[in-house]
């Protein structure tokens, strides 16, 4: 559902989200959007007789928050980070190094 909201580029109705999720029942879409609202991932605003929904954060922000959450639950932070970094591809390692040094991503 979040990917449908990100793709929409602005607040949309549940019916618009449903169109982006083949085979999903309208009530299922409403239930999931309500749960995403309850978790603080989506906002809901009254518009006319219904509501429009929008993501609170972009995809990168949601993934980063998930990574922080997993890191917080991982116990030994140093061990978790060391394992994560040791399994990065060369390209991802270079990208991470650029980000840590405050360089714009993609610069060589």
UniProtKB/TrEMBL annotation:
Q: Which UniProt keywords apply?
A: DNA-binding, Transcription, Transcription regulation
UniProt similarity note: Belongs to the BlaI transcriptional regulatory family.
Q: What is the lineage of its organism?
A: Bacteria, Bacillati, Actinomycetota, Actinomycetes, Kitasatosporales
One of its Pfam families is Penicillinase_R
Q: Do you know which Gene3D superfamilies this protein is assigned to?
A: Winged helix-like DNA-binding domain superfamily/Winged helix DNA-binding domain (1.10.10.10)
Q: Which InterPro entries match?
A: BlaI_family (IPR005650), WH-like_DNA-bd_sf (IPR036388), WH_DNA-bd_sf (IPR036390)
GO biological process terms, alphabetically, are: negative regulation of DNA-templated transcription
- Quick one: signal sequence residues? none
- Name one molecular function that GO assigns to this entry: DNA binding
Q: What is this protein called?
A: Predicted transcriptional regulator
- UniProt keyword Nucleotide-binding present: no
């Amino acid at each position: 559902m979040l990917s449908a909201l990100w793709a929409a580029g602005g607040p949309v109705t549940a019916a618009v989200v449903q169109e982006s999720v083949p085979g999903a029942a309208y009530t299922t879409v409403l239930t999931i959007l309500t749960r995403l609202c309850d978790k603080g991932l989506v906002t809901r605003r009254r518009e006319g007789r219904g509501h429009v929904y929008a993501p609170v954060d972009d995809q990168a922000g949601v993934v980063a928050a998930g990574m922080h959450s997993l890191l917080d639950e991982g116990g030994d932070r140093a061990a978790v980070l060391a394992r994560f970094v040791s399994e990065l591809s060369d390209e991802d390692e270079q990208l991470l190094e650029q980000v840590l040094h405050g360089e714009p991503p993609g610069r060589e």
